[in-house]
Amino acid sequence: MPYSQKVLDRFDSVLNEPEKHAVGRFEPNDPNVATGMTGAPACGDVMRLQLKLDGNTIEDVKFKTYGCGSAIASSTLFVDMLKGKTIQEAKQIKDKDIAKALELPPIKLHCSVLAEESIHKAIEDWENKLARRQHNQL
Ligand code: FES
After folding, report:
1. Ligand 1 centroid – CA 111 distance (Å)
2. What pLDDT sits at residue 1?
3. At what angle do helices 95-102 and 69-82 cross, to 10 degrees?
4. Cα separations (Å) of 54 from 51, 57, 104, 134?
5. Is 70 in the pocket of ligand 1 (CB under 6 A)?
6. What pLDDT is attached to residue 2?
7. Is 68 in the pocket of ligand 1 (CB under 6 A)?
8. Nearest to residue 6, comparing CAs of 101, 115, 112?
9. Which of 35, 95, 107, 115 has a CA that sits 20 to 30 A from residue 121's CA?
10. Whose CA is nearest to atom 4 of ligand 1?
11. What local confidence, expressed as pLDDT, does residue 88 receive?
């Protein structure tokens, strides 16, 4: 199963310059950081996405992905897609958008699903943090 040139380019680029592609992590106790971690039951790969928020806007993104080339390419793509977006806009990002942009073959679609789920989990974490904050202010 050949990877598309887009996957290969992103994969090579992230291997050569991981910081440029936002590989890493933010301080998890930072109140403006939300984390989403997801495992793919089909293959056991794991993706951790962190969002750094300024109010409702995603000002920065970091990730660590233990997985295949498609999962790593999907991670670099969601970094590009998420930076500068609001939470509401981020909720609109779908696995199909990622799969289409990277030309993933059907056997690799679950890699883009992993990316979408990581985004949703990070947003859920953020919304839970906000709810707790509001609750504590009452
Ligand atoms: Fe596991 Fe791609 S094969 S995420």
Report:
1. 5
2. 64
3. 110
4. 10, 5, 33, 17
5. yes
6. 81
7. yes
8. 101
9. 107
10. 111
11. 97
Whether the predicted model's global pTM rises above the 0.90 cut: yes
| Alpha-carbon span 37 to 41, nearest angstrom | 13
Q: What is the mean pLDDT of each run of 10 residues along the chain (138 residues)?
A: 91 94 93 95 92 96 96 95 97 96 94 95 96 86
Sheet containing 57-66: which strands, arranged edge to edge?
33-39, 46-54, 57-66
Q: CA 6, CA 19: separation in Å to the nearest integer?
A: 19
Tell me the C-alpha distance between 37 and 50, whole Å: 9
Structure tokens at 134: 């509001």
* Tokens read off for 137: 């202010």
Q: What is the distance between the alpha carbons of residues 67 and 43, in angstroms, rounded to a whole number? A: 9
- Say if ligand 1 is within 6 A of residue 95 CB: no
Determine contact, residues 129/31, Cβ cutoff 8 Å. yes
Ligand 1 nearest atom to the CA of residue 108, by list position: 2
Is the C-beta atom of 109 inside 6 A of ligand 1? no
Name which residue sits closest to atom 3 of ligand 1, judged by CA. 68
